[in-house]
Each structure stands twice: as structure tokens, then as C-alpha cells.
Amino acid sequence: MEIRKLDKMESPPNELLLLADPSIEMIEDYLNRGETYICEEGGERIAVCVMLATRPGTFEIVNIAVDECRQGMGIGKKLIEHSIQTARLQGFKTLEIGTGNSSIGQLALYQKCGFRITGVDRDYFVRHYKEDIFESGIQCKDMIRLSMDL
Ligand code: ACO
Ligand code: ACO
Question: Is the ipTM of this complex over 0.85?
């Protein structure tokens, strides 16, 4: 398994990106402004992570997704560890990530990787997404914000 930057001429792996974010408009916006990393195995793109500089000294993981057949095998954790190293090497002081209130497994993973909850952006998903989102039988309304000092 290899983690590399998305090539400038390469098409982005939309089918993976859409697993983490149902809005293609939002995805296209941050793909243009951020850095995209691909996890590849045997020539196949199996996971993706997009990072964006949001404020001075702050980097954010805005999209992370692993191919459905390969979830729960430690790949997401490896990509987050790679993101932490990338942010440190580029001199960022803080790494942020946000996820929905209904993303129980993601919240577990991010805290296991060292992120701590810093706040809640109430009704973020109601304001920014046209369709209602449901996960684990819970409506996704609020964005849980987490961060890590690097
Ligand atoms: N309770 C406790 N721990 C849990 C739970 C739970 N309910 N669910 C998952 N976990 C833990 C696992 O135990 C594991 O930790 P461990 O290594 O200590 O056992 C960890 O979370 C999962 O780790 P990985 O196997 O590395 O995760 P995976 O490779 O599946 O990647 C990801 C995680 C990216 C969330 C993947 O499942 C995915 O693509 N999901 C769909 C898209 C998505 O939701 N992306 C994130 C949206 S938010 C954003 O993009 C900023
Ligand atoms: N992901 C998604 N859903 C989950 C998860 C999870 N990881 N864990 C539990 N749930 C859901 C279940 O699916 C179920 O929902 P459903 O009815 O839609 O299927 C629900 O949570 C659990 O419901 P119950 O079976 O009614 O819960 P239980 O009778 O176990 O009571 C309680 C819950 C009080 C937390 C009990 O487990 C307990 O006593 N735990 C130990 C003490 C404790 O932690 N108390 C709370 C501390 S905070 C406080 O006291 C204010």
C-alpha cells in the first residue's frame, strides 16, 4: 500500500470522495483549493484524503474515505497518521477535522487518533445540504468540530 499525492492531470476519485461528502459542488470547491492524497494498492485507488489550509497555521482534513470493501482494516487510521505527518512537515500548528453528529464510528476513530472535540456547529448540515442525511438511525444535523495540536 502506497500513499501519494494526486497527480495534477489525474481525475479525482469522485466515487470515493462522495462516500464522505454527498455534495459534489463542495467536493469540487475544496479539490481546487486543497491537497489530495491517494492510497493505492496493486494499481487500484482504495482511499482518499483531502487537506485544506483554512487559517494561518491551521490545516484541515476536509474529506477522508476508504473503499467500502476495505473499511475497518486500518487504512483510514494510516491515512490520518500520514495527514498528521504531512501537516507537521509543512509547519502547521493545528490539524482540524469535522464530522456529523450521527457519525459514531468516525468520532471514535478521530479521538483514537488524538483529536479532541472543540465545538459544535449547530445545524451545519441542515443549512448546507439540500437533502436530509441519516446515519445509524440518527439525523445528521450538527457538525462536530475536532482538533489536534501538532
Ligand atoms: N466504537 C468504537 N470504535 C469504533 C467504532 C465504534 N462504534 N466504529 C469504528 N471504530 C474504530 C475501530 O475500532 C477502529 O479503531 P481501532 O484501530 O482502534 O480498532 C477505527 O475506528 C476504524 O479505523 P480504520 O479501520 O482505520 O477505519 P477505516 O479504514 O474504515 O476508515 C473511514 C475510516 C474513513 C471513516 C471509512 O470508514 C469511510 O470511508 N467511511 C465512509 C466515508 C466517511 O464517513 N468519511 C468520513 C467523513 S468526515 C470527513 O471526511 C472529514
Ligand atoms: N451506535 C449506534 N447506536 C447505538 C450504539 C452505537 N455504538 N450504542 C447504542 N446504540 C443505540 C442502540 O442501537 C439503541 O437504539 P435503538 O433502540 O434505536 O436500537 C440504543 O442506543 C440503546 O437503547 P437501550 O437498549 O434502551 O439502552 P440501555 O437499556 O442499554 O440503556 C444506558 C442505556 C442507560 C446508557 C445503559 O447502557 C447503561 O446503564 N450504561 C451504563 C451506565 C451509563 O453509561 N449511564 C449513562 C451515563 S450519562 C448519565 O447518566 C447522564
Answer: yes
User: Considering every ligand atom, which ligand is closest to the CA of 75?
Assistant: 1
- pLDDT tens string, the chain, 150 residues long: the values are 999 999 989 999 999 999 999 899 999 999 999 999 999 999 999 999 999 999 999 999 999 999 999 999 999 999 999 999 999 999 999 999 999 999 999 999 999 999 999 999 999 999 998 899 999 999 999 999 999 999
- The structural domains of the chain, with segments of one domain joined by +, span 2-149
CATH class of the domain defined by 2-149: alpha beta
C-alpha–C-alpha distance, residues 17 and 49, integer Å: 8
Indicate which residue's Cα is closest to atom 21 of ligand 1.
109
3-state secondary structure 74-94: CHHHHHHHHHHHHHHHCCCCE
**Residue 109 Cα, ligand 1 centroid: separation in angstroms?**
5
